[in-house]
Write a structure and sequence with these properties.
single chain, 432 residues, alpha/beta, six-stranded mixed β-sheet, 29% strand
């Protein structure tokens, strides 16, 4: 129990009341005792009317899992013996963003929620809930700490993968290669032969079979399946930097999960390769639903590293492991042309044997700073530095494209869609 700011202000007003006899006559000395007695009586009355600690009950319901990039909710059920305005605050530990206290007025029973915003993958803990309330005069307040001790797992955002996949698979052209569909002139994998009818592509005519059957026979093709796709995830210190509220690595993981789901649904095989200053894990490309579950489990356990990424070790190790031409999707990032030199050299070497798709996350704040209106000298300095970084980023991406590396440079909200569109375009053009 402690006095509120209103009680402190009320007692502070007693100081000029106590000085009244000095300025207006000794007969006013009675005013100060009366004022002090009234203030003490009001405080005592507020203590009596305020709900007791035992009369304020609280039950907390915590979610079992939080998805990175989405906001969860901590549900609180409050009970009190009389109408009261209660302020609640969650004591959190781990990669959970601290939330502001919430005020609620209840009559007997009330229900409210507190936001749970994950900032990184891992395990967060709701340690306790602090409850604070005051009497009707708001002169004295009580508080109570209710231990919770609930652990919440924070995992990659599979729900975003599922919703995005549903949008893409609802359109017919995205299903090419997932099942046998006879698109005229589409694909390179032989499907069947049939008699020619007007409208079919005459370039698909099989003259040997035509001469044998003495009828015009054409070949039909379908979209080729069973490609190899390898997801190379950089977990170095640059990928641990936050972007749009969560680390770049988690944006990359969400995009990689979406791409792997679509690849497996279209009949391709998916593998992964994780690295920073050393190689952490490699899984050869495989097909089937189990592959997606394994990838989901693997990415959920990826740690944020403080080490410098060793592209020479990681990509050379990948080249020695892949025996067949594959689509290698490298999800990484860079700062400037100097720090990107080794990355450029090794990506160029990798692109000689495989089709490489490089994915980088663009910082919208950097672009905004580079093009902001200049109001002060500090704004000018920031704008010049940001513009230099943006220009160097363009130079690196231009060099990669000249090497034959396909690039996706998008903001966090658009990186998953950009990566998926690039994959579908490469698949449609049969570049791997």
């Amino acid at each position: 129990m402690r006095p509120t700011q209103r009680a402190v202000l009320l007692l502070t007003l007693g100081l000029p009341v106590a000085l009244l006899p000095s300025f207006f006559g000794a007969a006013l000395w009675i005013v100060w005792p009366v004022f002090l007695g009234a203030a003490l009586f009001a405080g005592g009355l507020d203590i009596v009317l305020a709900p007791r600690r035992r009369s304020v009950g609280l039950e907390a319901e915590t979610p079992d899992t939080l998805w990175i990039g989405e906001e969860g909710a901590l549900t609180l059920q409050l009970t009190t013996s009389r109408p009261t305005t209660i302020e609640v605050l969650a004591e959190l530990d781990g990669p959970l963003r601290r939330a502001a206290p919430r005020r609620i007025t209840i009559e007997g029973q009330g229900r409210t929620t507190l936001p749970l915003v994950p900032e990184r993958r891992g395990e967060g803990t709701v340690v306790a809930i602090w409850v604070r309330w005051s009497g009707p005069l708001r002169l004295v307040e009580r508080q109570r700490r209710v231990p919770v001790g609930a652990t919440v797992g924070i995992v990659p955002n599979v729900r975003a993968v599922q919703s995005a996949a549903l949008r893409f698979f609802s359109q017919r052209e995205f299903l090419a290669g997932m099942k046998v569909e006879r698109y005229v002139g589409d694909g390179s994998e032989f499907e069947s032969m049939r008699e020619y009818v007007p409208g079919l592509d005459h370039r698909a005519m099989n003259w040997k079979v035509t001469a044998r059957h003495r009828r015009l026979i054409v070949q039909e093709f379908r979209a080729e399946r069973n490609h190899q796709v390898v997801l190379a995830l950089d977990t170095g210190h640059l990928m641990a930097e936050p972007l749009a509220g969560i680390p770049k690595l988690d944006h990359a993981i969400n995009a990689a999960l979406l791409l792997s789901y679509v690849c497996l649904r279209t009949g391709d095989r998916v593998g992964w390769h994780t690295f920073d200053e050393r190689v952490h894990d490699f899984a050869p490309p495989e097909a089937g639903v189990r592959t997606f579950r394994r990838l989901q489990k693997e990415t959920a356990g990826l740690r944020y590293s403080r080490g410098e990424t060793n592209f020479t070790l990681a990509l050379n190790d990948l080249v020695t492991r892949l025996r067949r031409r594959s689509l290698v999707v490298v999800l990484s990032d860079f700062v400037d042309t100097v720090s990107a030199e080794l990355m450029l050299d090794n990506l160029a070497r990798l692109s000689r044997r495989h089709l490489v798709l490089f994915v980088a996350l663009r910082d919208p704040g950097m672009v905004e700073t580079a093009h902001r209106d200049i109001g002060t000298l500090d704004h000018l300095y920031r704008s010049v530095v940001a513009a230099d970084f943006v220009q160097e980023r363009r130079v690196v991406l231009r060099k990669l494209r000249r090497m034959g590396v396909h690039c996706v440079d998008a903001e966090p909200a658009a990186v998953s869609t950009g990566l998926l569109n690039s994959y579908l375009d490469l698949k449609r053009r049969e570049l791997f």
